[in-house]
Amino acid sequence: MKNNTAYIRELAALAPIIPVLVVEDVAHAVPLAEALVRGGLPVLEVTLRTPAALGVIAAMATVAGARVGAGTLVTIADVEAAKAAGATFGVTPGSPVALVDACLAAGLPLLPGAATATEAMTLQARGFEVLKFFPAEGAGGIKTLKGLGGPLPGLSFCPTGGVTPENARDYLALSNVVCAGGSWIAPSNLVKAGKWDEIEERARHAAALPR
């Protein structure tokens, strides 16, 4: 699992925030990815929540500097489709054994989801060292991550779910947080309206967050 961990750590080091993207129109994919890359956020998580998502991944994968992954992987079919579309990593909300096995079999680097110590320890035993902490605020947020840091010093987290411009700094200040996922950088209303300059500016502010 060293290669998986090395790749995910490499992605996490590129920017403090990974934009979590819900895109309904493939025509928006390239200008959106270009705006985010220009703003300093090259790692993009495209959620498989719309019929256009796989086409969006394929289009974004053509953008220079973009590192495109698929989020909301929940089935084995999702894993296979995301890899075929050009996703270079996957993100799951939770980590059932069959889903993790499918990602490993497909050679898709994985940021697996965990919300409890048991889930985190189970993934650690399988060789994963960087986990998605989801849903971050719902699972106890900063207090829970601080609590996990003591007994599980070998794990790092990417909290996602309820991370906002107001609390992102506090999450990123934790020693066991390597980056965070956020949907505020490119909300659907700005994407639908083609507000690429505004999205780029939001990305620029997020990229400048200290950690």
TrEMBL record:
Pathway: Carbohydrate acid metabolism; 2-dehydro-3-deoxy-D-gluconate degradation; D-glyceraldehyde 3-phosphate and pyruvate from 2-dehydro-3-deoxy-D-gluconate: step 2/2. InterPro entries: Aldlse_KDPG_KHG (IPR000887), Aldolase_TIM (IPR013785), KDPG/KHG_AS_1 (IPR031337), KDPG/KHG_AS_2 (IPR031338). The keyword Signal does not apply. Its EC number is 4.1.2.14. Keywords: Carbohydrate metabolism, Lyase, Schiff base. GO terms for molecular function: 2-dehydro-3-deoxy-phosphogluconate aldolase activity. It catalyses: 2-dehydro-3-deoxy-6-phospho-D-gluconate = D-glyceraldehyde 3-phosphate + pyruvate. Homotrimer. PANTHER family: 2-DEHYDRO-3-DEOXY-6-PHOSPHOGALACTONATE ALDOLASE-RELATED, 2-KETO-3-DEOXY-6-PHOSPHOGLUCONATE ALDOLASE. This is 2-dehydro-3-deoxy-phosphogluconate aldolase. It comes from Sulfitobacter guttiformis.
